[in-house]
Design goal:
mainly alpha, about 425 residues
Length: about 425
């Protein structure tokens, strides 16, 4: 998303290689997700009545009839999805603010309008195809900016020497922005971004939708190449930008380092294409907005209109996109919002609410419906509460994830054994 082209480079702009721990955690999380989750989830999805959404999967996994495994996950998806969407709107607003010199609020509304329009006129297949084009644009943009700046500074060796001379601490990954040494809790917090991958609905739905499980090895190689190269380049953007740009960027402006470098490095036509890649990155997060269909299918149909026709569900989905967009715009109205912080909050919420539940559903036969409900609620609420108090300086995904796992284990153990058909489905997945 725009987080990679703005949030992470902004962190690296002030922290150097200290920001690399997030990148390392994400790279390891990506590998683990593709290695251990993708294939099993794809098979389970097909056997569990061809589930389309994450709440769909949870309900079909346990042959549940109460509706709780649809409604409860859908509620937490809506809560954290609003935060996630807001970060994208802030990124789009900051992009338009930088390019067109618009007031922040005007830029925010313009950026949100582009993203919402894009979401409303497309569908899952359209977003999947455009994501590929956007990904190609992002890939080349994130590489050409730091490489171009390094060449202008006299080459990579000269650039490294310049960074070392002006920002010696940048090459010390255990040194924080304020010059102090990275502590154990802070190290764990940065690396813990990786476990968030296990619970991101907008990522997991791609595993569920892959055409054949046999395509997963190739997809894994592509994904890992993309993650390693793009995240490394994002760190380089920030570090090189710290010596390339003559006017220091402070506060939230640090997250515009990529935009500022592109504008100074290239003629307007080329810079325009590169900045279009940033907009493409932001718009690609709109694929996650398709999860709003979970609202129509999992809340509206279940609670209000069980026999609603598909046309009605489509319009309810579109209306819910607009409602979520309005809430996301409201959260993003402050010009002091950091994209990195907003994404971190949403990432933690999704990861802690759904990561433990998915892992236990896929790999522990004894998991029960009540256990999964307890894990989702415990993980999600822990993140919401922990964030408000920032206890011990620990990233909220860590306690949320651990408490979620514990809740699933304890409640499942106290609950009666899963029904025979639930166990039989688990065995079929094992055999597959």
């Amino acid at each position: 998303s725009g987080w990679m082209l703005m949030g992470l480079p902004g962190f690296a702009y002030v922290a150097g290689l200290n920001a690399g721990w997030i990148a390392l955690g994400l790279a390891l999380g990506t590998w683990a997700n593709w290695q251990f989750i993708a294939a099993r989830l794809r098979v389970y999805t097909e056997l569990a009545n061809n589930s389309l959404t994450l709440p769909d999967f949870f309900e079909n996994r346990f042959f549940a009839q109460s509706g709780a495994l649809r409604i409860v996950p859908a509620i937490f998806i809506l809560i954290f999805f609003i935060l996630y969407t807001s970060s994208g709107f802030v990124a789009a607003g900051r992009l338009f603010e930088t390019i067109f010199q618009l007031p922040y609020l005007t830029a925010l509304l313009a950026g949100a309008a582009v993203v919402v329009f894009y979401t409303l006129v497309g569908g899952f297949l359209a977003v999947s195809r455009t994501d590929f084009i956007q990904g190609v644009m992002m890939f080349f943009a994130i590489l050409v900016v730091p490489v171009g700046a390094a060449i202008m500074l006299g080459g990579f060796t000269a650039t490294a020497d310049l960074i070392y001379a002006e920002h010696t601490s940048f090459f010390s990954p255990f040194t924080k922005v304020d010059g102090s040494t990275l502590g154990f809790i802070e190290f764990v917090s940065l690396m813990a971004w990786g476990i968030g991958y296990f619970g991101q609905p907008h990522i997991l739905v791609r595993f569920m939708a892959i055409r054949h499980a046999e395509e997963l090895p190739q997809a894994t190689r592509i994904a890992m190449a993309w993650v390693v190269i793009s995240l490394s380049a994002a760190i380089l953007v920030g570090m090189v930008g710290a010596v390339y740009l003559k006017t220091p960027l402070t506060g939230t402006a640090a997250e515009t380092v990529f935009l500022a470098m592109a504008g100074e490095l290239f003629p307007p036509a080329v810079a325009g294409l590169i900045l279009a890649a940033v907009l493409a990155a932001i718009m690609s997060t709109a694929s996650a907005q398709l999860l709003v269909a979970a609202f129509a299918q999992d809340i509206y149909r279940r609670s209000f209109r069980p026999h609603a026709p598909q046309v009605e569900l489509v319009w309810v989905s579109r209306l819910s996109v607009l409602v979520i967009a309005a809430a996301a715009i409201y959260l993003g109205m402050s010009p002091d919002n950091f994209i990195l912080d907003m994404v971190a909050y949403a990432w933690a919420g999704f990861g802690a609410a759904f990561g433990p539940a998915l892992l236990m559903c896929l790999f522990w036969r004894r998991t029960t419906e009540r256990g999964v409900l307890a894990g989702i609620v415990t993980g999600g609420i822990t993140v919401l509460v922990w964030k408000q108090f920032a206890l011990f300086g620990l990233y909220e995904i860590v306690p949320g994830f651990l408490f979620g796992l514990l809740a699933i284990y304890v409640v499942s153990k106290l609950d009666r054994e899963p029904a025979p058909e639930v166990t039989a489905l688990f065995d079929r997945v094992d055999r597959s």
